[in-house]
Amino acid sequence: DVLHSWTVPALGVKVDGTPGRLNQTSFLINRPGVYYGQCSEICGANHSFMPIVIESVPTNIFINWITLM
Questions:
Q1: Are 36 and 8 in contact (CB under 8 A)?
Q2: Burial of 29 from C-beta contacts in 10 A (0-12 / 13-18 / 19+)
Q3: What is the maximal distance between C-alpha atoms in the chain?
Q4: For 8-25, how does the pLDDT look when each residue is reduced to its tens digit (9 = 90+)?
Q5: Which CATH number does the domain housing residue 53 bear?
Q6: DSSP 22-36
Q7: Domain of 23?
Q8: What's this model's pTM, rounded to 2 decimal places?
Q9: Where are the beta strands (DSSP E) in the chain?
């Protein structure tokens, strides 16, 4: 595999993904909405097909969704 960089500009988040290493981050989203990002490290032929979508919902809606799963 190759290096990737997980980026969501509206949230100010950018995390590198390095093959063979674990990486994590956390952040707090104060406003419900849909946030979009992209792999921002040129990583190969399918680089432009690595979109990122994060949907932020209020906690009570998330709990209801989990309960119905």
A1: yes
A2: middle
A3: 41
A4: 999 999 999 889 999 999
A5: 2.60.40.420
A6: ---------S-EEEE
A7: 4-68
A8: 0.80
A9: 4-8, 13-17, 33-39, 51-56
